[in-house]
Specification:
The protein has about 210 residues and is mostly beta strands. The protein has 1 helix and 20 strands.
């Protein structure tokens, strides 16, 4: 009788330790990465990762974002894992942003995506006479009204800053504008440079050339 009770007790303990019939273990880990890690304002970044462990196919993945000033995560979008647990999602951050992914109880590490402004530069005359005054102008998006940027000319020693025009508001737009008049005395290459701040990294306009005649 005692042997029968002992066997029953052992079987009960083993049953309590085993998972319930038909239960599927939860995935154990989720990863996240970004390509590229720095984008031009208006551009896209692909966030992708993998959910590991068993039962990782067809699972929902919530991607959360925390844009500058990096004080709280909010839901950005959702994705679904494929047959091997991989997932991906495309986003368009407007400022430096931190991302993470969650699925069930699994939470990824964070990944940071930097955003550089979109900057344009135009010359009022790209073939000026020697000593002629040329107007350099353009826009910077998103707006950074009141910020000084650098108008630069390429020299044998690198880029030299000629002026620091201050960005001004563009009514009804989400961009800022700038303009500066300079006398051009030789063939030169020019660019506009944003030096970077807390919400956007440094960036340059396309290089524009002036050919003096």
């Amino acid at each position: 009788m005692k042997r029968t009770l002992a066997v029953a007790a052992t079987a009960l303990a083993a049953g309590a330790a085993a998972p319930a019939l038909g239960a599927k273990p939860e995935p154990r880990n989720i990863t996240i990465g970004a390509t590229p890690t720095t984008v031009r304002f208006g551009g896209s970044v692909t966030l992708a990762g993998k959910l590991t462990g068993s039962n990782n196919s067809g699972r929902p993945v919530t991607v959360e974002q925390d844009a500058f000033p990096l004080n709280a995560f909010t839901n950005a979008d959702t994705a679904t894992t494929n047959a091997t647990g991989d997932w991906s999602l495309v986003q368009k951050p407007t400022a430096n942003t931190r991302y993470r992914a969650r699925s069930g109880s699994a939470e990824s590490k964070t990944v940071d995506v930097m955003v550089r402004p979109a900057i344009t530069l135009q010359l009022s005359d790209r073939t000026p006479a020697r000593g002629q005054r040329v107007r350099f102008s353009g826009t910077l998006c998103p707006e950074h009204d009141g910020v000084a940027i650098a108008l630069q000319r390429r020299t044998a020693k690198g880029w030299r800053t000629l002026a620091k025009p201050v960005l001004k508001d563009v009514a009804g737009a989400t961009c800022s504008s700038y303009a500066k008049g300079l006398r051009v005395r030789r063939d030169s290459a020019y660019r506009t440079r944003f030096l970077g701040d807390a919400d956007h990294v440094a960036g340059n306009s396309r290089v524009r050339r002036a050919h003096v005649h």
